[in-house]
Design a protein that fits this description.
The protein has helices at 37-41, 51-61, 81-90, 104-112, 130-134, 140-151, 172-181, 212-222, and strands at 3-10, 19-24, 67-71, 94-99, 118-122, 158-165, 188-192, 229-232. By secondary structure, it is an alpha/beta fold. The chain has a single domain (3-232), classed as Aldolase class I (TIM Barrel, Alpha-Beta Barrel). Strands 1-2-3-4-5-6-7-8 form an eight-stranded mixed beta sheet. Helix 4 links the parallel strand 4 (94-99) and strand 5 (118-122). Helix 7 (172-181) packs parallel to helix 8. The relative contact order is 0.13.
Length: 234
């Protein structure tokens, strides 16, 4: 496992659970608004954290934690992911996977093995705008497969779809189109964009986020297609 970061305690990364968050390096997308750009393009230069060290920490803290969130980067690119997740589960901890959805075969294998308790799939944009916003096009059919397997309850795992709402990249029309792509889902999370230094696209570092009122308007528009919309980060 190419582990590059460990947040020892989080109250927000795993809904309803106290978790530790593991960050892995490497990603097959180049999202312009990515907060973790170093994990995407500079992970080879970052300090490596051994899997043994992480597992030892989790074993020591298992009585204080409910679960572990595995994020990135893109976790499903890690060859040792199934073994790592199995080891976490052996400690009695739940596992949440943050993913771009582009490796449905990995997600399915983990879920069918009973190794996942929660999946968060980032929907970057309307399908036709993935090349411009996420630097990805060939992965779209695979993401669609992930979406359908979750919507059809084929994996029998709790999940959410989520989109970071970036002014200048996504507007109300885009958000409604995304909601249609995941139509009928139980939970669609609209995440507030937070400008900061070190974004993949430096031009976005000074972009002003949408106001809470506009985000609420987007949420209301999306509710025509999904069961519930949650605003996060306002």
């Amino acid at each position: 496992m190419n582990i590059k970061g460990l947040q020892k305690t989080s109250l927000i990364d795993f809904p309803g659970e106290i978790c530790a968050t593991v960050f892995v390096g490497g990603c097959n997308f180049r999202c312009r608004y990515c907060y973790n750009s170093d994990l995407v393009i500079n992970h080879g230069e970052m300090r490596h954290i051994s899997q043994e060290r992480v597992c030892s920490f989790l074993e020591e803290r298992s009585f204080l934690l409910d679960g572990v969130c595995i994020s990135g980067g893109e976790p499903t690119l890690q060859e040792n992911l199934p073994g790592f997740v199995a080891r976490i589960k052996s400690l009695g901890l739940k596992v949440k996977l943050d993913t771009n959805g582009g490796r449905p075969e990995i997600i399915e294998a983990l879920a069918r093995a009973g190794l996942l308790d929660y999946i968060a799939v980032d929907i970057k944009a309307p399908w036709h705008r993935y090349p411009m916003i996420a630097g990805a096009e060939e992965e779209v059919p695979r993401i669609k497969k992930t979406v359908l397997s979750l919507l059809n309850n084929e994996l029998e795992v709790d999940f959410e779809f989520r989109t970071t709402v970036v002014p200048g990249l996504l507007d109300e029309e885009d958000m409604v189109e995304i909601a249609g792509q995941i139509g009928g889902c139980k939970k669609f999370v609209l995440q507030q964009f937070r400008p900061q230094t070190g974004l993949m696209d430096p031009a976005l570092e000074t972009v002003k986020p949408y106001s809470p009122e506009i985000m609420e308007r987007f949420a209301a528009a999306c509710k025509r297609h999904v069961q519930s919309v949650i605003l996060r980060g306002l």
